[in-house]
Amino acid sequence: MRRRTLAAALGLVGATGLAGGLAGCTVPAPRRGGPTADPAPGMPITSSRRAQLMQIMAHPDDDLYFMNPDCQRMVDAGVPLLCVYVTAGEHTGKNHVPGRTGETVADREDYSSARHQGLRQAYAEMIGLDKFTPWHKGVATLRGDRQAEINTLTHGNRRVELVFLNLPMHTPRRWMALPSLWEDRALGLRTVIATGSPVRRASDYDYDGLVDVLVGLMERYRPTVVHTLDPDPDIQHSDEATRKKDSEQPGYSDHGDHTAVACFSWAAMVRWVAEATADGGSIPGFVTTSFRGYYNRHWPKNLPEPVLREKAAHLVPYGGDPTWQCGNAAGCGDYMVGGTRPLTNKKGWVRSTHHRYPGPGPVVATGPDGRLSVYGVLGLRAVRWRETEPGSGQWTEPDDLGGGPLAPGLGGATLLDGRQLLFGLRFAALGGHGGANKREVVVLEQRSPGGPFLAWSGLGSPERDDDRGRRIGVPVAVTAPDGRVHLFVRDADKGVSTRVREADGTWGPWRGLGGAEVQDGLSAAVDGRGRVHLFAAGRERVHHWAQETPDGRVAFRADGAALPVPGGPVDVAGTPDGGLALYYRRPAAKELTAVRADGRPLPAPAFDGYGTVNAAGTPRGPVLLGRDLRGRVQLHVGGRRSVRAQGVVALGLATLHLGPKGAMAVGVGADAYPWSWASHTDTA
């Protein structure tokens, strides 16, 4: 097996980590490198066409707070679920009962057991059973002869497995155990045995041990979808009292355990791909979604009331009640979470679900022969699926385009001659114990329309150091009528930076665009006069950057119209008169907002739902793509709304494609394979 450091494998020279905290996931002490995958293209890819969801959390309840409703939609569709909880969730060992006076006795083993019971109650109800339904409890033997408790429950076509690794949350020397395990070469942790667990002996973990255990679980379950937490949370300078109250790490908008477990999860995915492809093996076919954590506290809330109530309802059985007869002597849930507390908590974590790498869906392009090509990220690498015949809706096996490890989602732009550009956010280095941690924007350019590609090229980062570079967002690009390609990314200051490719193929330098703080999920378009525009969701309004003339620079429109406050990313479409229209949902709203770029309101079609809306302008009016309140894909075409009711459950947002036969949605399913759907034929 090839064993190289991440920096060497990815061709980094002189890459250095940045000391100074968990959010950088680095300290200045080197560690042994693990195997890393070759980023060159052309490897075989495993494509089983079965679906399996794997979620990796720091604490019991991270999934319920941050990964729903995405998780629930897949469970409802019959996708088997494996949840891996890295810590015991024992904190101080005190399971406080609201309203009870007197000192709560600390018992770490009991508190861990009570939180496990709360999860069993929550997932039993999620799959349609009584919350006190007994689970099958067993012991899983993991890599390194380590042991973990595994709980299993099935109901019809629904299956949930919970794996409790039960590493401690704290250590006497460093307090925060998981961040220290990522950073400290000398640290080892011994697991907590929860009260009533079938596990009878504790297991020891170091850095490589935890990565290996996660890789072993991936190899055993072969997930097609992996949900993780956020490895690179936003820089957030809260005052010290607020930071401590909100349990955020110094300088960054998330809990330290969330970031450390996300880093371990990404390191494990990199190693899984490396092990699988060693000696000519196949790339495992999986897609990844990372979820924001305490970020939800700082931005407008994006879930409408019906979806919020559904999400929060799963935290009620998790929180439990001390009067319940649940059959678990150590406790019946995490008592500070149950009842109405998730909805009344001022931090508002439950009121939003944000992806770390939001995007408009896979890149879709039409080749010279009329066949569609779909570009996405599979096994942390760029891939291309092609239609077997024009308009067939059937797809070839994926072609590996290499370039990994890549964050989920690709940006795309089509050159004037029909060639495709693909943009990715690359984990150029990812290592604990002083290893380099670096993100960069990369580009893949097609040699000829519909043909092969050149080698990947690095476009660097708009940030001056690796720690700040960790905060950059998903690249978004648009081709102007003069042949220039404008590339945009959200930067570490939560603003926007750009880089421009000239018509002759040369790239200019990175340039900050100024303006206010925005969320990721940028939207770029060209108006009827050939001018490039960029829109992004701010805290109190939509922010706008644009060219004054087609040959000018894109600049912040400080005097722009006061566009209504958004709950999340916006999309933009052309209007018949050459203008631009924006489509999005306001905070906590199910209804659609439609407004011109100059602030004039537009008639908003009946298109209730949640999440981002994709839009395209046509002479007959806008075509819209999004999700309804039940999470199903919906299209609005010609004044008619249609819902996709067949086919494998969709992941994330699909892409809206206008072809010769009309509007079509193209996405990737829970089986890590493309699907397409046209409402006028109701095919899936």
From TrEMBL:
Signal sequence residues: 1-19
Keywords attached to this entry: Signal, Zinc
Gene3D superfamilies assigned to the protein according to its UniProt record, in alphabetical order: Fucose-specific lectin, LmbE-like
Chain intervals for the UniProt region annotation (Disordered): 228-256
Keyword check for Heme: no
InterPro entries: GlcNAc_PI_deacetylase-related, LmbE-like_dom_sf
Basic and acidic residues: compositionally biased ranges: 234-256
One Gene Ontology term from the biological process aspect of the record: glycoside metabolic process
Domain of life: Bacteria
Record has Magnesium as a keyword: no
Pfam families: PIG-L
Single GO molecular function: hydrolase activity, acting on carbon-nitrogen (but not peptide) bonds, in linear amides
Descriptive protein name: LmbE family protein
Biological source species: Streptomyces thermolilacinus SPC6
